[in-house]
Amino acid sequence: MKNKVLNYLRNSNDYISGEVISNELNVSRTSVWKSIKKLKELGYNIESSSKKGYKLLECPDVLIEGEIKPLLTTSYIGNEIIYYNEIESTNSKLMELAKKNATEGTVMLTDKQTKGKGRLEREWIAEERKNIFMSLLIRPKIPPYKASGITQVVALSVLEALESLYNIKFTIKWPNDIIANGKKVCGILCEMDGELDKLNFIVIGIGINTNQNTIDNEIKHKATSLKIESGLSIERKVIVASVLNRFEENYETFKEYGITPFIKKLKEYSALINKNVKISNSFKEFTGKIIDIDDEGYLIVKTNEGEIKSIIGGDISIRGEDSYLPK
Ligand code: BTN
Question: Global pTM?
Answer without folding.
Answer: 0.92
